[in-house]
């Protein structure tokens, strides 16, 4: 998958021999996509876990890219996702590994190019799940068991959103008509207003179902996806929302969660984050960088571990599905104030 740096050097030498003095002009022509490469570039990212040796954790990725590209690739850690966008806008970073909202902002504010999407267990997007402890009210059929492959556990689903005794897919939108069964005063556990899966996509889905989410429901504030599940499990709320499938996060404290908490609907798909690059980078550099990062997880066993430890990913994909990012941006704008 990787393009040999030696091969690139031979090609460059041949081009110089053929074009002579005119080569300097062509390599500086940014419109041709063959502009001169910078001597170094910087990647900004937000790690998924706190780590005292983040520079050391970044080193395998930056070294891999430096060796393959033949330029210095630096890595810097951002305090939050918004900081990655600011770094790209200020040209302090030319590559950002960030969340979906920051991808949207970097594209629309700074003309960044989306080159890769994050993959977790084969998926580059996920649904918000509607959970309930009252399947008689929200399920049109008997709940079935399907396997959540991320940790090989059987969980309960209804309304045909998953097939019985099969691998769950977590693909939305599905079963959303069941949200119309939420009646006045129903306790609905919702996470912080900045949470796509715990608040934003659920609010949009309920409003699309005809609910006044300010007047028709009793909002029960919770922190985190695990607590959204536990609110329904413990009876503090009749409905809650979380990422697919948040029930797997409470198996230790609630081993019978599949019996007591049923998934009855999926929202539209929420995009994972990904990788965006500055519009200032030459096209051929972007192409090689994309190819190298796309293939990074397969480059070594260490790379797999780095991806998991650093950004909680199993892969990157060049299938960017930017329409999902654009839709996410629309929803972000709805909740901007």
Question: How would you describe this protein?
Answer:
The strands form three sheets. This protein has a six-stranded mixed sheet with strand order 2-1-3-12-4-13, sandwiched between helices. Strands 9-8-10-5-11 form a five-stranded mixed sheet, sandwiched between helices. A two-stranded antiparallel sheet has the order 6-7. Mean pLDDT is 87; it is low at 1-32. Helix 3 packs across helix 11 (301-311), helix 4 (81-89) runs parallel beside helix 5 (100-110) and helix 5 packs across helix 12 (322-334). With 337 residues, the chain is of the alpha/beta class. The chain has twelve helices and 13 strands. It has helices at 5-19, 22-27, 54-69, 81-89, 100-110, 135-138, 196-208, 225-233, 257-260, 283-294, 301-311, 322-334, and strands at 40-45, 72-77, 95-98, 113-119, 125-132, 144-148, 153-157, 186-190, 217-221, 239-243, 262-271, 274-277, 315-317. Strand 8 (186-190), helix 7 and strand 9 (217-221) form a beta-alpha-beta unit. The protein folds into two domains: 5-24 and 38-121 and 272-334, D-Maltodextrin-Binding Protein, domain 2, CATH 3.40.190.10; 125-270, Periplasmic binding protein-like II (D-Maltodextrin-Binding Protein, domain 2).
């Amino acid at each position: 998958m990787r393009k040999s740096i030696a091969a690139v050097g031979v090609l460059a030498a041949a081009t110089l021999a053929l074009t002579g003095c005119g080569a300097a002009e062509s390599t500086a022509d940014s419109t041709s996509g063959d502009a001169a490469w910078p001597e170094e570039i910087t990647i900004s990212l937000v790690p998924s876990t706190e780590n005292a040796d983040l520079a050391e954790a970044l080193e395998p990725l930056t070294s891999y890219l430096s060796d393959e590209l033949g330029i210095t690739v630096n890595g810097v850690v951002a305090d939050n996702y918004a900081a990655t966008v600011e770094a790209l806008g200020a040209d302090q970073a030319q590559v950002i590994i960030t969340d979906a909202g920051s991808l949207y902002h970097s594209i629309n504010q700074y003309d960044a190019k989306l080159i890769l999407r994050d993959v977790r267990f084969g998926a580059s997007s996920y649904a918000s799940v509607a959970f309930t402890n009252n399947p008689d009210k929200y399920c049109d059929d008997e709940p079935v068991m399907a396997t959540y492959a991320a940790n090989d556990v059987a969980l309960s689903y209804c309304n045909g959103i998953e097939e019985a005794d099969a691998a769950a897919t977590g693909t939305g939108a599905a079963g959303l008509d069941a949200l119309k069964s939420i009646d006045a005063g129903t306790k609905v556990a919702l996470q912080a207003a900045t949470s796509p899966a715990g608040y934003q996509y659920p609010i949009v889905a309920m409003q699309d179902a005809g609910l006044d989410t300010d007047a028709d429901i009793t909002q029960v504030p919770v922190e985190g996806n695990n607590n959204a599940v536990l609110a329904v499990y413990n009876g503090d709320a009749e409905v809650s929302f979380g990422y697919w499938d948040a029930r797997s996060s409470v198996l230790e404290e609630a081993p019978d969660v599949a019996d007591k908490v049923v998934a009855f609907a999926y929202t539209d798909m929420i995009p994972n984050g990904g990788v965006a690059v500055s519009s200032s980078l030459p096209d051929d550099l972007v192409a090689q960088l994309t190819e190298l990062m796309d293939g990074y997880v397969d480059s070594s066993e260490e790379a797999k571990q780095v991806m998991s430890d650093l950004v909680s990913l199993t892969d990157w994909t060049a299938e960017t599905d930017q329409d999902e990012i654009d839709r996410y941006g629309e929803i972000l704008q709805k909740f901007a104030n």
